[in-house]
Design a protein that fits this description.
heterohexamer; A alpha+beta; B mainly alpha; C mainly alpha; D mainly alpha; E mainly alpha; F mainly alpha; A: alpha+beta; 3-stranded antiparallel beta sheet; 6 helices; 12% strand; E: mainly alpha; 3 helices
């Protein structure tokens, strides 16, 4: 079932990238996608971690929110760099997600917003390095944690 | 003056890169550095070839109906494309030779290795075994 | 069209600065990182010189696989380069003299990008025309590579194959030479 | 417009190069080379538009890919000492 | 219509250029590895996002756009991974970040 | 490094698209930049990434080295085989015109097959090189 979904995703990718729709190239594309699925299956890569489909229904909403956050933190990071007032701090936060993928998504979201970076992961405790107290407070309010848990949709 | 200087500036820098590569090969005693020097020398030769193929105001040699300008010369591209892949294969061969030398002599510095060989040689003279005999074994 | 040449001149100067840094350094890992950066900029340089296929190859082979192979070999080698005892004066002098001669000769080379240069007159126009009419594929480089110069590419493929087999043979576990060859130098060291 | 973007990329490239050559720890250098790769990806895309042939964006994708794999390889050397180890 | 798109592209390129240049300045100026990662993150997110947005305005809707979006997705996917792994290894090799520590640290 | 979840999950997600992209470059070498040499390296880099993250043993389980060695030779054989087939059909070595119904389609088929042979050889050589270098200390002990 998951292999079939991966196959269709890859086929869409091929058709979007290709731009030439002759019979030869489309059949080559189908063979290529089948080969990819075969190899991925052999390497045991097609599971909940390799193909997190349960994210898809709420993904767009989350991404828009994430982009807004990235924009805001880019602006404040630029201010910090220009002013030169750097007071880094290190602290730990607790993630409330169930699956590993959602935790990774949370950690990646923290890293993706400039000004905060996840330095260590140990089960559900993350060590975060922040450029300033403001960035640290943003993470410590747990808004992002709640958003990712909502994205996961398992609670 | 300035435009003519810029017209051959690439050649000058390419020759400088070439000489830096050559210097790393002949001046340094470390084998890994020698291979890095060889890589630099190779890349500078590639740059020289590709620079010859460029035409001012040309486009890459991939034909397109809607563009009617000059295409750059495709011949150097073909030569260099295969040369890059062969280059990495020879680099790998060199690296594997360096690994073997390291496991035989315990060092990859040229001075150490020639000193060990010298010790070897004198040892042979003392024990009376000729070099030819040893290679036959 | 002077901007094209200016971009080239700028990139090539950056490459020179990286190469000078390469001469200065003595640690192996920094050498490998600098070589990687050098290849990355060389690939960008190839794009500005209209050689997209070459840039593709350089980006994937030169910057990717080459770096990984250097790293893999580096793991078993000494991490620092020793300062050599001998003076490096003679090699440096000969390199400078040779470079000077080459730069002096470069005044005879045609300026970059001139349509009237001899290289553009001989066979390239026929290939560009023939690629469309005889072979019917738009990428001239591929058609020259696989069709017009098919023998050449066949040879190159065999060279890559041979190099791969040679590396596999060299790094194989058993080594008959080592068994026969008793290293007197090591014995000497042990005795001493 | 595209030329202005390219000039910005060039300035960024020089600044990052200074960091590569100055860099104290190796992690600084790895980070800087990674950033240099990102800037060059932007530069390749911009140059495609600048020379009116934007269909060659495949190279930029390859570039981003190789950049990622190279960084992972360098970091693996640091964590385990060899590329073959199983952590 | 073309003019409007050109203006949008110009604005995007301007913001993108500012963001990559400030990021590179930060890469030189900030005190230690962990702080520099934030500056590198600025180049990876702000810079690429705005430059790609600007180029999308120029192409309209075509196959080139798909590839541009693919580049963007790829960089957004791999940038946090490399940043995190770099920071993680720097911590493992006992490089202690500058600044204060709040609470218990792993 | 597979006990780092971020790296592991991103490798799992990226593995299939990288191979697909490599094959895309392989088969679109006629229309844009690309071809056998580049595609071989990209496909090999996907396997190298897998070996880096999950360890060399897992990489060898995914792609056994005896299959690797067979495919290594097969690429060259395909290239030479195209030449010999065109010879058997009554033309010169590596003259593709005879392979199809018209000269142009013959050239197209010939170039596709030849590029495939190149890609097969290059990708397998690169994987074999990586395995040989990464496995060096283990082979030395035996």
């Amino acid at each position: 079932m998951k292999s079939l979904i991966l196959f269709f995703i890859l086929l869409c990718l091929w058709l979007l990238m290709s731009g030439y729709y002759s019979i030869l190239l489309i059949s080559l594309g189908i063979i290529s996608c089948a080969f990819c699925v075969l190899v991925a299956n052999r390497g045991k890569l097609i599971d909940d971690e390799g193909l997190p489909i349960f994210f898809i229904p709420r993904l767009l909403n989350y991404l828009i929110w994430l982009f807004k956050e990235i924009l805001k933190s880019n602006l404040s990071t630029a201010k910090v760099i220009i002013n030169g007032k750097v007071e880094p701090e290190t602290f730990t936060v607790k993630a409330s997600q169930v699956t590993e993928v959602a935790k990774v998504t949370y950690a990646n979201s923290i890293t993706l917003t400039p000004g905060t970076v996840t330095t260590k992961m140990h089960k559900d405790v993350f060590e975060v390095h922040a450029l300033n107290a403001d960035f640290g407070n943003d993470i410590r309010t747990n808004e992002m944690d709640r958003k990712v848990t909502w994205l996961e949709g398992k609670k | 003056m300035i435009s003519s200087t810029i017209g051959i500036w690439n050649y000058w820098i390419v020759f400088c890169l070439m000489m830096i590569g050559l210097f790393l090969v002949i001046g340094r005693k470390n084998f890994l550095k020698k291979i890095v020097g060889l890589t630099i020398f190779q890349t500078s030769v590639f740059l020289l070839y590709i620079t010859f193929g460029k035409i001012k105001g040309g486009t890459p040699p991939i034909l397109n109906e809607s563009i009617n300008s000059i295409y750059s010369n495709p011949l150097p591209h073909v030569l260099i494309l295969t040369a890059i892949v062969v280059g990495v294969a020879t680099t790998a061969l060199g690296l594997s030779l360096v690994l073997r030398i390291n496991s035989e002599y315990g060092s990859i510095e040229e001075d150490d290795i020639s000193a060990q060989d010298l010790v070897d040689y004198h040892d042979e003279i003392e024990t009376g075994k000729s070099i030819d005999l040893k290679f036959k074994q | 069209m002077i901007s094209e040449l200016l971009i080239n001149a700028f990139l090539v100067t950056i490459m020179l600065s990286i190469a000078i840094a390469l001469i200065k350094t003595r640690t192996v890992i920094f050498t490998v990182i600098l070589t990687s950066a050098y290849s990355l900029i060389a690939a960008l340089m190839f794009i500005t010189l209209d050689a997209v296929d070459v840039a593709f190859t350089e980006a994937s082979v030169g910057a990717g696989i080459s770096t990984i192979l250097f790293l893999a070999a580096m793991a078993y080698l000494p991490k620092k380069e020793e300062e050599s005892i001998n003076t490096q004066f003679v090699p440096a002098l000969s390199c400078i003299i040779l470079g000077g001669i080459l730069i002096w000769c470069s005044y005879d080379l045609p300026e970059i990008g001139q349509l009237t240069a001899p290289i553009h007159q001989h066979i390239a126009p026929e290939y560009i025309k023939g690629s469309k009419e005889d072979i019917g594929i738009p990428n001239v480089v591929t058609s020259v590579l696989a069709s017009y110069r098919g023998y050449d590419t066949f040879g190159e493929t065999i060279v890559v194959f041979t190099a791969g087999v040679a590396v596999l043979a060299l790094l194989e576990k058993k080594n008959p030479v080592k068994k026969n060859r008793s290293l007197p130098s090591k014995k000497l060291k042990k005795n001493a | 417009m595209f030329l202005a973007g390219l000039i910005a990329c060039a300035i960024t490239g020089i600044l990052i190069l200074i960091r590569i050559i100055l860099g104290k720890t190796t992690f600084d250098r790895v980070l800087a080379v990674n950033s240099l790769g990102t800037v060059i990806v932007i530069g390749i895309s911009l140059h495609g538009f600048y020379s009116n042939r934007p269909e060659f964006l495949d190279i930029a994708i390859v570039y981003a890919l190789i950049n990622f794999i190279g960084t992972v390889a360098v970091l693996k050397i640091f964590s385990t000492g060899s590329l073959g180890g199983d952590n | 219509m073309v003019l409007i798109f050109d203006i949008f592209t110009g604005i995007c390129f301007f913001i993108g250029s500012l963001s990559i240049i400030i990021g590179a300045c930060g890469l030189i100026k900030l005190p230690d590895v962990f702080s520099r990662i934030h500056a590198a993150g600025m180049i990876d997110t702000g810079g690429t996002a705005f430059f790609i947005l600007g180029m999308v305005f120029q192409t309209g809707w075509s196959l080139v756009t798909v590839k541009l979006i693919l580049i963007g997705v790829f960089i957004f996917f791999t940038s946090p991974v490399t940043s995190h792994v770099t920071a993680n290894l720097a911590r493992q090799k006992d490089i202690v970040p500058v600044g204060k520590k709040i609470g218990k640290i792993l | 490094m597979h006990n780092n979840p971020i790296l592991r999950i991103s490798t799992k997600i990226l593995f299939a698209p990288i191979i697909l992209f490599g094959l895309y470059v392989q088969f679109h070498g006629d229309f844009g930049p690309g071809g056998g040499f580049q595609a071989g390296v990209i496909v090999a880099s996907a396997f190298i990434l897998y070996s880096l993250v999950f360890g060399i043993e897992a990489g060898k389980k995914l792609f056994p080295s005896n299959i690797n060695l067979i495919l290594l030779a097969l690429g060259g054989i395909i290239y030479g085989g195209v030449g010999i087939v065109s010879m058997l059909l009554g033309d010169e070595f590596l003259a593709y015109n005879i392979l199809g119904s018209s000269p142009q389609s013959g050239q197209h088929i010939g170039i596709l097959l030849v590029e495939f042979g190149v890609g097969l050889t290059v990708s397998n050589v690169m994987i074999a090189l990586f395995n040989a270098f990464a496995d060096y200390d283990k082979t030395k002990e035996k």
